[in-house]
UniProtKB/TrEMBL annotation:
Transmembrane segments: none annotated. InterPro entries: ArsR-like_HTH (IPR011991), HTH_ArsR_DNA-bd_dom (IPR001845), HTH_MetalResp_TranReg (IPR051081), UCP030050_HTH (IPR016943), WH-like_DNA-bd_sf (IPR036388), WH_DNA-bd_sf (IPR036390). The keyword tRNA-binding does not apply. Keywords: DNA-binding, Transcription, Transcription regulation. Residues 2-98 form the HTH arsR-type domain. PROSITE patterns: HTH_ARSR_2 (PS50987). It comes from the Bacteria. This is Winged helix-turn-helix transcriptional regulator.
Amino acid sequence: MLHIKNLDDGLEVFKALGSELRINVLKLLLENGEMNMNELASNLGITNGAMTSHIKKLEQAGIVKVTTEHGGHGNQKLCRVAVDKVLVEIEAQETENEKNIYNTEVQIGHYSDYKVFPTCGLATVNALVGEVDDPRYFAHPDRINAGIIWFTRGYVEYIIPNLLPSATKIDQITLSLELSSEAPGVNNDWPSDISFILNDVKIGTWTSPGDYGDVQGIFTPDWWFPNWNQYGLLKMIEINRKGTFVDGLKISDVNIYRFNLDYKSTIRFRFEVPDDAENIGGLTIFGSGFGNYNQGIKVRIAYSPM
């Protein structure tokens, strides 16, 4: 997901999308997954030089990812869509005073608690950690280096570092991470109800549409099994004074002030597929070195004086 926090920051995106031809480029890429410059130019009836210019604008805006493939007939540039959503914030957020923002990132293997059930497993960018479908390996020392973790039901919980200045209170917490379901093998149509829990309070549920494996994730290592999870969707979870939101859409009325969080508070965030979920389709979390976004759990906390 591409998150534009103000209109000025979105100018390049708006310009890139303000062309019917570039919209047609995106439609072709969404339909075919990945295409080279020659294929795109041929389909749209323009020269390769003109296509290069259009792709450059989409790449600069972060909408398209371009990689170079080395083959027997020279190098070719492959293009694919790099985002699943563009979220534009029109109304300024009252708590988003840039002087009072704390940013941190939690690697996905740094969970503080877990309870998982097969199918399950975890891996670093170099190898599987232990054996798949054996929850004991979630306690293995190498789990701190995990770049991907998955399970059918259960949870993982993280302690978010709280290093706010003294005498401040928390007004908003925003997390972004790459998620998908966990199907046997892969299945793009495999819904799963994933609950978000802050300090033992359920703040909402998001239904993951599927477990994606149609193409290799941009950062997924080459040794990874082709019929396993390849990438997920970048989701933004936000709890503020108005409630809890996923990608800007409200999922519950639970708001940040229910928790009375300040600079001394412990912040525990849990991702869970509960036993009583309507869709028990598992959970995969993609971290650094896997999927399409190459990140852990990014956290942004807005705070103000007490």
